Amino acid sequence: MQHAIEHNHSKHAADSHDHGHHDQESMKVLGFWIFLVTDCLLFGTLFATYIVLKGHVDGGPTGKELFEIPGFVAETFILLTSSFTSGLAVLAMNKGKVNQLIGWLIVTAVLGASFVGLEINEFVNMVHEGATISTSAFLTAFFTLVGTHGLHVSVGLIWMIGLMVQLKMRGITSVTRRKITVISLYWHFLDVVWIFLFTIVYLMGVM
Amino acid sequence: MSQHPAGAADHGHGHHDEHENHGSLKAYVIGFILSIVLTVIPLLVVFQTNMSKNGIIITIVTMAVIQLLVQLLFFMHIREGEGPKYNVMTLILGLFIVVVIVASSVWIMSFNSVVQ
């Protein structure tokens, strides 16, 4: 009898623990979502700064002279495609196919790395042309805004590599599932921010 | 006996997850195609047409906002999940603050130079 009660009790505890665990995972996703919204505020203030300082070139080069059209168009399509492939990774996870999931994460990470590579290349070219962060208010705002986005992508890459290792070791569990959900949200968010960079900084810059 | 409830709980758990992530391949492909189209349109508008500057700005910003919605609906699955939509509420509050910051900064900074 005593044993039965204990058994029952421990089973009950395990059940409520499971339930609590699940709730906690979805709370963590919500918490991450709130972080993304605050990140929107960060980018919002940087966008406001950029728009205000856009015309203050101080006799230095303007966006029209600096921005290379093939470069930023390629960056846009690369990031867009990587947003799609990170979605495919989530689909593979929902089907429980861990290798397919890791495969799509690798594709996403390679695309993300080429995006960062193109952006670094663009920055290096600009600096060689004498357009550094201290040349004018326009360039300060430009490098801060675009650089902050590039930094987010770079951090996401390191994070993604870490997750791939963890997936390889632990497989798809409720914890890794939540982590993949969160990083795909992060990646889509970075793509959304880039769309506004593409529109407001680059397209309006070359107009 | 002890196996059964665990199995049932597991089943319920799996079912719940399935329910939570509706994302289908079709939705992702549609979202991707729409995103490509919404990226190509601004490129064409800027480089291939002779619209007025304001017309171009309004068009490309509209395309960017539509693409934001496409990504939210097709990729980030904002409509899904159960219970109160705290994520949507937070997002609306966040976007409101962003619009206020950007619009009022631009407005006051431009007006400032007029006054001087």
Automatic annotation (TrEMBL), chain A:
Its main location: membrane. Residues 1-20 are annotated as: Disordered. It is a multi-pass membrane protein. Keywords: Cell membrane, Electron transport, Membrane, Oxidoreductase, Transmembrane, Transmembrane helix, Transport. PROSITE patterns: COX3 (PS50253). Gene3D superfamilies: Cytochrome c oxidase, subunit III, four-helix bundle. The chain crosses the membrane at residues 30-52, 72-94, 101-118, 138-165, 185-205. Residues 30-206 form the Heme-copper oxidase subunit III family profile domain. The keyword Oxidoreductase applies. InterPro entries: Cyt_c/ubiquinol_Oxase_su3 (IPR024791), Cyt_c_oxidase-like_su3 (IPR000298), Cyt_c_oxidase_su3-like_sf (IPR035973), Cyt_c_oxidase_su3_a-hlx (IPR013833), Cyt_c_ubiqinol_oxidase_su3 (IPR014206), Ubiquinol_oxase_su3_dom (IPR033946). SUPFAM superfamilies: Cytochrome c oxidase subunit III-like. The keyword NAD does not apply. Pfam families: COX3 (PF00510). It is found in: Cell membrane. Cytochrome bo(3) ubiquinol terminal oxidase is the component of the aerobic respiratory chain of E.coli that predominates when cells are grown at high aeration. Has proton pump activity across the membrane in addition to electron transfer, pumping 2 protons/electron. Belongs to the cytochrome c oxidase subunit 3 family. Heterooctamer of two A chains, two B chains, two C chains and two D chains. This is Cytochrome bo(3) ubiquinol oxidase subunit 3. It comes from Paenibacillus glycinis. The lineage of its organism: Bacteria, Bacillati, Bacillota, Bacilli, Bacillales.
TrEMBL record, chain B:
It is a multi-pass membrane protein. It is found in: Cell membrane. InterPro entries: Cyt_c_oxidase_su4_prok (IPR005171), Cyt_o_ubiqinol_oxidase_su4 (IPR014210), Cytochrome_c_oxidase_bac_sub4 (IPR050968). This is Cytochrome o ubiquinol oxidase subunit IV. Residues 10-20 have a biased composition (Basic and acidic residues). Residues 1-20 are annotated as: Disordered. The chain crosses the membrane at residues 27-49, 55-76, 88-109. Pfam families: COX4_pro. Belongs to the cytochrome c oxidase bacterial subunit 4 family. It comes from Paenibacillus glycinis. Keywords: Cell membrane, Electron transport, Membrane, Oxidoreductase, Transmembrane, Transmembrane helix, Transport.
